[in-house]
From TrEMBL:
It comes from the Bacteria. It holds the Pfam family HTH_18. Signal peptide: none annotated. The keyword Repressor does not apply. This is Transcriptional regulator, AraC family. One of its GO terms (molecular function) is DNA-binding transcription factor activity. Residues 8-106 form the HTH araC/xylS-type domain. It comes from Anaerocolumna aminovalerica. Keywords: DNA-binding, Transcription, Transcription regulation. InterPro entries: AraC_E-bd, Cass2, Homeodomain-like_sf, HTH_AraC, HTH_AraC-typ_CS, MarA-like, Reg_factor_effector_dom_sf, Tscrpt_reg_AraC-type_HTH. The keyword Signal does not apply.
Length: 290
C-alpha cells in the first residue's frame, strides 16, 4: 500500500506548514505524486478534498487556541489561514454552529468537530477499517433490555458492562440470534473533551427483545426510536472502534449534507461480530439524521 506512505508524507507536510500558506503543488511534491493523482487518492481514502482537510484541521486547532491561549481572535484567524476575522467567523460558525467569541466564552472543548491529525495508523484504518461513506436507512423502533453505566475514554468500563450483560442474557427472553446493542445516551454534540483528553458518556449495552414483559429485576430498558440513520460499518477489533468515531464526529459531521437529529447513536453487534479481538469483526454504527 505505497499510497498510504505517500499520503502520510503529504499530511506530515501539511501539519508542518499548517500555520503558513499552503500550495497544492508543494503538498503533491511532498507526497511523491502528481497533483492529479494525489487529489484523487486523498479524497478516496480520507473522504474529503485536500483543501477541506486543511481548513478543518486549522479550525480544529483554532478551537484549542481560543480555549487555551489569550490570543486575539483576529490573530488566531490570520494564523488559521483566513484573511479577516469575518471570514474566519463564517467558517467557524458553519463548522461549530457558534461564533469564535461564543465558543471561547462557553469554555467547552467539544468532541464533535475535533479533527485530529491523521497518522499512519489512522490512514490505514480509513483505508481498510471503515466505510467512509455511510448508507442511509429507515428503521422502526427497537426494544432493548440490558445494563446501563457511565464510562469514559480514560476509564473505560464497557468490557465490564458487556460481561455483566452476558451473565444475565439467559434470563432475558430473547432469541438465540438476537442482536446486541451499545447505545450512547449522551448527546455527542454536547460532549466536551477535558484537558487530559478524557470524554465521559452514559452507555447502555443490551439485547433486542420483542417486549419488556417477563424481564428479571434490575434490568434496564430502552426504546430506540425509529427514523432515518446514517450507517457506518467498522471493520476490525473493538480496540480500534474509537478511530471510527474520531472519523465520524471529527470529519464526517463537518462535511456531510445530512442534518443530525437529536436521537441517540448506537452500535449493532450481529452475526458479523466475531469477538472483541477478531480483526475480521464488523460493527454497524447508526447515527441519527433528519
Amino acid at each position: 500500500m505505497d499510497y498510504i506512505v505517500s499520503l502520510e508524507k503529504a499530511i506530515e507536510y501539511i501539519e508542518q506548514h499548517l500555520d503558513e500558506e499552503l500550495f497544492p503543488e508543494d503538498i503533491a511534491k511532498a507526497g511523491g505524486y502528481s497533483l492529479y493523482h494525489l487529489t484523487h487518492i486523498f479524497t478516496a481514502v480520507i473522504g474529503e478534498p485536500i483543501g477541506s482537510y486543511i481548513q478543518k484541521r486549522r479550525l480544529s486547532n483554532s478551537c484549542k487556541k481560543l480555549l487555551y491561549s489569550n490570543k486575539r481572535i483576529i490573530d488566531i484567524a490570520m494564523e488559521s489561514g483566513f484573511g479577516s476575522s469575518e471570514a474566519f467567523s463564517r467558517a467557524f460558525k458553519s463548522a461549530y454552529d457558534v461564533s469564535p467569541s461564543a465558543y471561547r466564552k462557553n469554555n467547552s472543548d467539544l468532541y464533535t468537530g475535533s479533527k485530529k491529525m491523521l497518522d499512519r495508523e489512522s490512514l490505514l484504518h480509513l483505508a481498510e477499517g471503515i466505510t467512509i461513506r455511510p448508507r442511509i436507512v429507515e428503521l422502526d423502533k427497537i426494544f432493548v433490555a440490558g445494563i446501563r453505566g457511565e464510562t469514559s475514554t480514560l476509564h473505560n468500563i464497557l468490557p465490564e458492562l458487556w460481561n455483566s450483560l452476558l451473565e444475565i442474557c439467559s434470563q432475558i427472553p430473547a432469541s438465540s440470534d438476537a442482536r446486541r446493542f451499545g447505545i450512547c445516551e449522551t448527546d455527542r454534540t454536547e460532549v466536551s473533551i477535558s484537558k487530559d483528553g478524557n470524554v465521559t458518556f452514559s452507555e447502555i449495552v443490551g439485547i433486542e427483545v420483542d417486549s419488556f414483559g417477563c424481564l428479571p429485576k434490575g434490568v434496564d430498558v430502552k426504546i430506540i426510536p425509529g427514523g432515518r440513520y446514517a450507517v457506518f460499518t467498522h471493520k476490525g477489533t473493538v480496540a480500534t472502534l474509537l478511530k471510527t468515531y474520531d472519523y465520524i464526529w471529527g470529519s464526517w459531521v463537518l462535511f456531510t449534507k445530512e442534518k443530525l437529529d437529536e436521537r441517540e447513536d448506537f452500535e449493532i453487534y450481529d452475526k458479523r461480530f466475531l469477538g472483541a479481538d477478531n480483526v475480521d469483526s464488523q460493527i454497524d454504527i447508526y447515527i441519527p439524521v433528519k
